[in-house]
Write a structure and sequence with these properties.
489 residues; three-stranded mixed beta sheet; 20 helices; 3 strands; metalloprotease
Length: 489
């Protein structure tokens, strides 16, 4: 076998083991017994030791030095493996294993603290996670910026300063739009009532189906924090139910279906390699956000959803136009995942600044709750009432995902660009959405973006799909046009 063939075979096994590890994470969030957290932490640490040894194997380094790619696909594979090898060889095996163990246990500790609104219960664990992530960042950065070193795990090719500059450009237009909308004479009424759990889950399944989610290679389960897990032939999603807030369940489902359909649509020839996964979290979020927002919250598709919900739950007390306003209602709120499109990116900007400060050592874990509450009051004009509505609401920091949050907004920016290109190619798309047929749009996304997996770099993936370089302009234009029309401002 050639050096390239050896690398491909090596990656096939590593990819498969990583999928097994991911399945353990899915199990932990859905059906694992609560008392199994400590043992699961040891299992995750053991698997991470095996994976780290494979990813840093000196033999892999020798093959990389000799390998010649046979084609463009092979060149992309070598690019991914070289990047991974370079990063993993900087991180000691002890640290990689300890991170896997601590973050696995921390996930359960966070869930307990969130349920009890008990920050003190979570702080020692959070402090340990942050210390380990700072150690990892120092190993990766090699005297460079610590946060940038962590960000590269989720969005290669961009820096914290670049994201900060993008946020600085976005913030004035977002704040101005929010002020206009909240001060408008017309304010949509919320959807009220009780919507049974089973009915919500039936409708979630229907939504997943019309978007093209393949249940032969996936499933929907329940979790505290909805997520998607897996690649290739086994891609699972989760959702959650609040009987007085059906949009939480339905749009969480659509969001995760966006992630899952991306993974399910990647060219099967790329499977069992780094090319067989979404290329970055920013690109991944572009799929979940365009599925959820530009398609799912459009006037066309909400008209279809209004009829489906009426059939499932009875009279909703509002017509399709009022329902469209209820789906897109802008209001002060604590929870990022329940935020409207106008304010969502402001939630991300706050988390971005806080986690950069934590990793830089400018903010201590013990001061995080006060910093969060002060910043939230300044940014949203609302005082945080309890920790589960504040610093305990998100799972990300407990599992060590520092550098992940800004990819949500980057995904929104990419989604704005993709929707501009999609509408140019499919000018009659609203007719399909009104008929409950978003697969017309998702087929476009599959062809232009999803099937290519990790073949290209993240920004090039979006550029090739759109036909132009991405920036925040299309997203902001879309938001101003949509919410200006809804609110008459």
């Amino acid at each position: 076998m050639s050096a390239f063939d050896n690398i491909a075979a090596h990656e096939r096994t590593s990819w498969s083991l990583a999928q097994v590890m991911g399945r353990l994470g899915w199990d932990q969030e859905t059906v694992m017994p609560r008392g199994a957290a400590e043992q699961r932490g040891e299992e995750m640490a053991a698997l991470e030791e095996v994976l780290h040894a494979r990813r840093t194997d000196p033999q892999l380094g020798e093959w990389l030095a000799e390998a010649v790619a046979p084609d463009a696909k092979g060149e992309a594979l070598l690019r991914h493996v070289r990047r991974s090898y370079g990063r993993n060889t900087r991180v000691p095996a002890r640290l990689a294993s300890e991170l896997a163990r601590v973050t696995s246990v921390a996930q359960s500790t966070w869930a307990e603290a969130r349920a009890k609104d008990d920050v003190a219960h979570f702080l020692p664990t959070l402090a340990r996670v942050i210390a380990l992530k700072r150690e990892e960042a120092a190993a990766l950065a090699q005297n460079g910026d610590l946060y940038d070193a962590l960000l590269a795990d989720y969005e290669p090719g961009i820096t914290g300063d670049e994201i900060g500059a993008m946020f600085a450009r976005m913030r004035p237009r977002l704040v101005a739009l929010r002020e206009k909308v909240l001060g408008a004479a017309y304010q949509p009424k919320p959807l009220t009532g009780s919507f049974g759990r089973e009915g919500q889950l039936r409708l979630s399944t229907r939504l997943a189906q019309i978007y093209g989610y393949d249940f032969a290679h996936g499933r929907i389960d329940m979790a505290v924090h909805p997520f998607s897990s897996g690649s290739g032939g086994d891609v699972r999603i989760t959702t959650r139910v609040a009987e007085t807030d059906p949009f939480n369940c339905l749009y969480s489902t659509i969001h995760e279906v966006g992630h899952a359909c991306y993974e399910q649509s990647i060219d099967p020839d790329y499977r069992y390699s780094p090319l067989g996964e979404g290329v970055s979290m920013g690109v991944h979020e572009s799929q979940s956000r365009i599925y959820e927002n530009q398609l799912g919250r459009s006037k066309a598709l909400t008209g279809w959803l209004h009829d489906q919900m009426s059939a499932e739950f009875g009279d909703l007390g509002m017509d399709p136009t009022a329902f469209y306003g209820a789906v897109n209602r802008v209001q002060p709120g604590y929870i990022r995942t329940e935020s409207d499109e106008v304010q969502y990116n402001l939630h991300i900007m706050m988390r971005f600044d806080l986690e950069r400060a934590l990793i830089a050592g400018d903010l201590s874990p013990g001061d995080l709750e006060t910093a969060w509450n002060d910043r939230f009051l300044a940014d949203f004009g609302v005082a945080v009432d309890r920790p589960s509505n504040g610093m305990l609401q998100d799972v990300h920091w407990s599992v060590g995902l520092f550098g992940y949050f800004p990819t949500y907004s980057l995904g929104n920016v990419y989604a704005g660009c993709l929707m501009k290109a999609l509408r140019a190619d499919l000018p009659d798309i609203d007719a399909a959405l009104a008929a409950g047929q978003p697969t017309v749009a998702t087929a476009w996304l599959r062809e232009k973006l999803q099937q290519h997996g990790g073949l290209r770099e993240p920004r090039d993936t979006i550029t090739q799909a759109c036909g132009f370089e991405p920036d925040e302009g299309p997203l902001l234009d879309y938001l101003e046009a949509k919410f200006g029309a809804i609110y008459g401002v």
